[in-house]
Amino acid sequence: MSIQHNRQKNKLDGNWCLRPDYISRSESATLEKEEMGSYWTPERLAASLSYQYDVYRIAYKLAARVKGVASILDVGCGPARKHSLFSDVTRNEITLVDQQSVKEVASRYLPSAEFHSVDLETANLDLQKKFDIVVCADVVEHLVDPNACIAFIKRHTKKDGFSLISTPDRERLYGPEQITSGHPCHVREWSFSEFAAFIHERDLKIVRHIILGQQKTSAP
Q: Which sign does the torsion angle of CA 44, 174, 203, 63 carry?
């Protein structure tokens, strides 16, 4: 897929809270038009068990605090493989949301979950319910306009629920002078402080803002 750079994109909506000279891509490399996409290769499927593992570990710790059945919404779920790594997965009600091309592979790994197809660039779907835990693990950096996705998360999170939104820290990965995405599939990448500002500007209360490893760690 062709990927172009566009400085003007950063001028939209408060500059996405990025540094003024940052250059975003103008197209998403992971939006698939085909019903059966080709993004989830065997290599990516294998890696999906490890990447963002700790985000899901925290999500399930929070879910364990919920009395009775905890409802979990995974926004941009991908193959949804990590859910099955947690022993208490059966006591939770899991709903998956992603583009249509992901449905077959996600349903294969988590057949008990409810799947909804949605374009996260518009995210105009209303699931008619709110969730205890909403996970959006390393998704927003893939979106040309992440505002619709953030709004989707907000309107589907219970008043006393939690949203876990993760994204790579550009400066930690590439240094403070990086002004483009270091990953070919990412539209833009925030620094730690930029992402906090981005979330705050969209009227989400930050309860905890931390750095996690990109891949599975031995942390408790």
A: positive
Residue 146 carries which side chain, given as an amino acid letter? P
Identity of residue 187: V
- In the block, tokens 């959006």 appear at 136
- pLDDT, tens only, 138-189: 999 999 999 999 999 999 999 999 999 999 999 999 999 999 999 999 999 9
- Give dist(CA 46, CA 48) in Å, integer: 5
How far apart (Å, rounded) are the C-alpha atoms in residues 23 and 35? Answer: 31
Q: Is 19 helix (H, G, I), strand (E, B) or coil?
A: coil
At 116 the three-state DSSP class reads strand
pTM confidence score: 0.88
Residue 216 structure tokens:
């599975």
Compute the distance between CA of residue 10 and CA of residue 38 in angstroms, rounded to an integer. Answer: 29
75 beta partners? 97
- pLDDT tens-digit profile of 35-87? 556 777 888 888 888 899 999 999 999 999 999 899 999 999 999 999 988 86
The DSSP-derived string for 159-175 is EEEEEEEE--BHHHHH-
Place of tokens 């750079």: 5
Query: Which pair of structure tokens corresponds to residue 130?
Result: 């709110």
Longest dimension (CA), the chain: 49
Residue 105, classified by CB atoms within 10 Å of its CB into exposed (0-12), middle (13-18) or buried (19+), is buried
